[in-house]
Write a structure and sequence with these properties.
This protein is mainly alpha-helical. Helix content is about 40%, strand content about 10%.
Amino acid sequence: MGSALVSRLRDERWGVVTVDPPGVTSHHAAEIRLHGPLQEPATWQALPKRLRDDGVAPLAFIHAVSGYAGPDSPRGTGQKSQDTAFSDLVEGAMLGCNHVMPL
């Protein structure tokens, strides 16, 4: 879903910034790409500086969940427990809001 959204926003001439977990291939349409653990404050603390350095003022913040596999997913649940994986996603969304929304 995140990839489709990035493509669509780019087609609509939005400047797109992506923040992805380590090891994830960045979307080709993103103008600014950052990588880091999404549940770690340092990842999100680096974003405002990068945006300021590049002269970018965000208009929206969208947290597109990817990588989460629930119990019924054909991908399985991976190595983390469902609760831990879900908590990491929520933590990443909260940190993103805390660091991007003030901009």
